[in-house]
């Protein structure tokens, strides 16, 4: 694909190796019942970590369509949109520690979310070892 760097193809392949996190309807309802600054921040952090994984999966799926369907102009346009969105998301800065602490302090003082759960780092954001063999998406690698 023209306009996609080898580095971006590598990042897409890296993120696509991770499973998508399932979210149940019950979790969404519970999340939205009593929104606070803390829960909104946690939701934003989840989306910041999860959306690149989901977009990478969609790019790989579109690239793997059978019988040259992946070369149709409409499919290429959609795939390009996913790639552009993926690139924007992985380059978008995370909330700073100062913002997280301010939100945590405000929610504790407000009496809500007294025990915010800890944030787990997403393994997809860890750089793969340099000397390991990378799994490349063939049609993206050579474009």
Tertiary shape = elongated
**Amount of beta strand:** under 5%
Runs in which pLDDT lies below 50 for 5 or more consecutive residues are 132-136
Give the helix tally.
6
* Residues in helices, as a percent range: 55-70%
Cα(first) to Cα(last) distance is 4 Å
Mean pLDDT: 78
Query: What's the alpha carbon Rg, rounded to whole Å?
Result: 18 Å
Largest sheet: none
What order do the SSEs take from the amino end to the carboxyl end, as H and E?
A: HHHHHH
Number of strands: 0
Class of secondary structure makeup = mainly alpha
Assembly annotation: single chain
Describe this structure as you would to a colleague.
The protein is mainly alpha-helical. Helix content is 58%, strand content 0%. The protein has 6 helices and no strands. It has helices at 6-16, 25-33, 37-63, 73-91, 97-109, 138-141. The radius of gyration is 18 Å and the shape is elongated. The model is unreliable at 132-136 (pLDDT under 50).
Question: What is this structure's SSE topology?
Answer:
Elements: H1 6-16, H2 25-33, H3 37-63, H4 73-91, H5 97-109, H6 138-141
Helix pairs in contact: 1-3, 3-4
Annotation keywords:
143 residues, elongated
Would you kindly provide a brief summary of this structure?
By secondary structure, this protein is mostly helical. It has helices spanning 6-16, 25-33, 37-63, 73-91, 97-109, 138-141.
